Amino acid sequence: MASNYTDVITKNQIELSFTPPQNYFLTCERLPKIVFTVQEFTIPTLSGGEAVMPNMMNPSRSYIPGDGIDYGTLDLTYLIDKAFAGYRELLLWMKGINAPDDTAQSATYKDLIKTSAPDFAKTMSHIELFGTDAGNRPIVSWKFKNAFPISLGGPNYNAASLDIEPLIGSIAFRYMYFECETFTNGIANNNSI
Known about the structure:
This protein is an alpha+beta fold.
């Protein structure tokens, strides 16, 4: 811990340049030809467990760290391309794993990825959300492992609007866990957490 203000400023202050709020993209291992241009997202909340520490002498509760982390859902909005390719692929993914219209649709979906994994693992995919600088060089990435969609929102169209705005879709994913890595001048820092 710093003992005085000079130590705080000279030794512990991080660089005061900030991430631009633009240029975020989502890629999906299962959909290698599609890149989603992200409009809005919040990195999911992590909740660490806690356990009550037994203490007969103290009437108030004391806590110690628990034994796991709970990951929130990844919720984001993205631009819908003019051919609706990204939206349609997400729709196929959700229908294929949750409620196929017929057995052929389910079989077709599961054939999209050939693995020796159990059937349920074939419905998952690694996805990566990354941000870039003004030169489109990566500055940060979050890799979500074994993700699958749980909610898909279609475009909202309003012909009465005076502004021409692109159509936006929304998607929510569940996943096993995520890792975060930073980049310097577009080169990975190999500091994944």
